[in-house]
Amino acid sequence: MAIQTITKVYGVDDFKIFPVTQDTTEGFACGEAIDCVGVKQVSITFEADEKELTGDEMTLDTMSKVKSVTVSTELAKLNLEAMALFTGGSIIEGTDSTTLSIGSNASGNQKYFQAQFQIKATDNIGGDLHYIVYKAKATSTPINGTEDEYATFTVDLKGVYTTYDGFAGADATTEQKLLDIKVNKTVTALAAVTSV
Asked: In Å, how far are 48, 50, 51, 55, 56 from 60, measured between CA atoms?
């Protein structure tokens, strides 16, 4: 039986990032997962470039192409390993402390990563939904502290197309990847997607 294409989406259950270690014409690869614990919210927006053909004092045609995606997510817990990837900083481990250090060398040192979100509350009984942004960088990482409340950590991401064009497209040709929204028949753990 085919998986349904219309479903409710309730909450967000997991968020992991996978450092992109290769994105060339020859292949696409990711490193080990970094678990962003305590995901509270996710918002994904398709960024399109729109053009209009005008003439005779009217719009005759319009063309729109998805160029990138922006993602905003909120986390309940701070993860220094994830923050190092988001900011280009480095982690310094000592005997009495661990420090995320962001200095002048961090500028331009941000790495690409694959971002994945899991949602278990869908109409597909027993299954789940995954948002997969194949290649992203963080654009901002505010830390939000409030008196008498837990701090939360917001991360804004920009997803771009992969260089690698060996992913299977819907028409059996290959293509570069930006985003997949995948509905699974059974709950499936988040894992790096390097070929489809």
From this structure: 19, 14, 11, 7, 8
Q: How far is the C-alpha of 68 from the C-alpha of 65, rounded, in Å?
A: 9
Q: Which of 32, 7, 34, 2 is nearest to 129 (CA)?
A: 7
Per-residue tokens: 145 = 């502290």
Contact 135, 161 (CB under 8 A): yes
What mean pLDDT is predicted for residues 62-66? 93
Establish how many alpha carbons lie within 13 A of residue 41's alpha carbon, considering only the half-sphere containing its beta carbon.
9
Residue 41: how many other CB atoms lie within 10 Å: 14
Nearest alpha-carbon partner for 17 in 32, 27, 5, 6? 32
| pLDDT tens profile 132-172 | 999 999 999 888 888 888 989 999 999 999 999 999 877 88
Give per-residue pLDDT as tens, 23-45: 999 999 999 999 999 999 999 99
In this structure, the chain runs to a length of 196
Among all chains, which residue has been given the structure tokens 């949602």? 119
For tokens 């490193």, name the residue. 31
